[in-house]
Design brief:
The chain is α/β, with parallel strands linked by helices. It has 3 domains: 85 residues, Udp-n-acetylmuramoylalanyl-d-glutamate--2,6- Diaminopimelate Ligase, Chain: A, domain 1 (3-Layer(aba) Sandwich), CATH 3.40.1390.10; 225 residues, UDP-N-acetylmuramoyl-L-alanine:D-glutamate ligase (3-Layer(aba) Sandwich); 159 residues, Protein-Tyrosine Phosphatase, Chain A, CATH 3.90.190.20. The protein contains 17 helices and 25 strands. Strand 13, helix 10 and strand 14 form a beta-alpha-beta unit. Helix 5 crosses helix 11 and helix 9 crosses helix 10.
């Protein structure tokens, strides 16, 4: 809590409880910042903010209100500076580690927190924000500045000295991270995604590169040398230290060999001319890369590789390759966040290296997002899975039927899929048609707890829905026996 006169050179000794940019989230005693978004100008919502309890306004154009107004040249530029000052510069006190990329951000960020310890390292990303003291939700993978600096402060108060965060291309595009100076910045990969926001692939790549322009001069960039855009990312780095991971022996951390089993992955990594044999609970080749990235982040943070290897066995990434408990059924159910053509392709190819009969996929595509990827997603599923059930996934203002029609438009064999609009019913259908040694894969939302519809957001969780229908099926089959 600070007085307005402590934040600005003014005569208003009004106590400020918090900073908000969403008028709906304003509470009594808050300072409302009239930032300008892509589709909304928050100067238009000052009356709502005051009605909800705002005691002062920061604006860049004239507003007619009865509470104090601080005028600045650009509210968007002002927001991160103001938030940092309000929370006593938590971004200067924490070591800030970041990962960007199309796929694997949540896995790498979670892996890193496990390696470093959640008592000293906080996490911010798709799965919320967490440390040893708390686990809480976030509205976005990478929050707006009014929340981001608040979260940084929460971690400091919880005793953390660092934070591992997912930095999305959209966050860079919208300027949410423009004042952040990273101690470590890592990348997983780059494939086609979010072109609805960026307009073209070049702009998307440039937003990924932005993270590496914001690494401190003495910080570390951690790059996947096997990625197609490795050279582009490397050329954007402005820091002195670049570490790489990949299969080539010239990498800082070399992936020498790996063997994937149904319940573990045995890996040989090479670091500083020494080989390390590791048994990882994370499955799939993509997780061999994700773990390599996390190990390099830990090493760059000052840890010795021998210190963090024992922590690998405990790693669990919620909603990523999450195998649900077996209740007595003769098939498996797995939840995964895969929602890009590349992520889906990698996942399904991995699944069919296991001892499974059919793969039954439940999948949709988010509304108001990159529509050009939808037919590619649909074709990728059909090319790699036994059967698909197409359903809605956060349709927002779009008609779910239109989204699904785009997903299936290039699929010639209509017998390979069906459409069940209601996601809950789609999950139920998949579980009810599964047979011996089949695997049901529910993709796209992982452990998210919401569904964004046209006029509202409802509570919805794929794991809970699947467990509900598993229990019903198992109970019915026991009764039959």
């Amino acid at each position: 809590m600070k007085k307005l006169s402590e934040l600005y050179n003014c005569n208003y000794d009004i106590e400020i409880n918090g900073i908000k940019i969403n008028s709906k989230e304003v509470r009594k005693g808050d300072l409302f910042i009239c930032t300008k978004g892509v589709t909304a100008d928050r100067h238009d919502f000052v009356d709502d903010a005051i009605k909800n309890g705002a005691v002062a306004i920061v604006a860049s154009k004239k507003v007619n209100v009865k509470v104090p107004v601080i005028y600045v040249d650009d509210t968007n530029d002002e927001l991160p500076k103001l938030c940092s000052k309000f929370y006593d510069y938590p971004d200067k006190k924490l070591k800030i580690y970041s990962v960007t990329g199309t796929d694997g951000k949540t896995s790498v960020a979670t892996i890193t927190q496990y390696l470093l310890g959640n008592n000293v390292c906080g996490y911010i990303g798709t799965n919320g924000r967490s440390c040893s003291k708390f686990t809480l939700d976030t509205n976005n993978t990478t929050p707006d500045s009014d929340k981001l600096y608040e979260y940084f402060n929460e971690f400091l108060e919880a005793g953390c000295n660092s934070v591992m965060m997912e930095s999305s291309s959209e966050a860079f595009y919208r300027g949410r991270l423009k004042n952040i100076k990273y101690d470590i910045g890592a990348i997983t990969n780059i494939t086609r995604e979010h072109l609805n926001i960026h307009g073209n692939f070049e702009n998307y790549i440039d937003c990924k590169c932005q993270q590496f322009r914001q690494i401190k001069n003495n910080g570390y960039a951690i790059l996947n040398s096997d990625d197609e855009f490795y050279s582009t990312i490397k050329n954007s780095c402005r820091c002195k230290n670049i570490l790489t991971y990949g299969k080539n022996e010239n990498n800082t951390l070399q992936i020498v060999n790996f063997t994937i089993y149904s319940n573990k992955t045995d890996i040989i990594y090479k670091f500083q001319n020494k080989e390390y044999q590791i048994s990882s609970p994370l499955l799939g080749e993509f997780n061999v890369y994700n773990l390599a990235c996390g190990l390099l982040i830990a090493i760059a943070s000052g840890k010795k590789i021998e210190e963090v290897i024992p922590n690998i066995q405990a790693i669990k990434v919620s909603g990523r390759l999450e195998l649900l408990p077996n209740l007595g059924q003769n098939f498996q159910v797995m939840i995964d966040y895969a929602h890009t053509p590349n992520g889906i392709n990698n996942l399904l190819k991995f699944i069919h290296t296991l001892d499974v009969n059919r793969s039954i996929v439940v999948i949709g595509s988010a509304g108001e997002r990159d529509f050009l990827k939808r037919p590619i997603m649909g074709k990728t599923v059909i090319d790699n899975a036994s059967y698909a059930i197409f359903t809605y996934e956060d349709p927002r203002s779009e008609d779910p039927k239109d989204i699904i029609n785009m997903m299936v438009k290039d699929i010639e064999d209509k017998s390979r899929y069906e459409i069940v609009l209601d996601r809950s019913k789609a999950i139920e259908r998949a579980i009810n048609i599964a047979g011996k040694n089949d695997i049901v894969l529910i993709l796209g939302k992982g452990n998210e707890t919401y569904e964004k519809l046209k006029d509202k957001t409802i509570y919805f969780n794929d794991i809970e829905e699947a467990m509900k229908y598993l229990k019903i099926r198992v109970k019915k089959e026991k009764v039959k026996v």
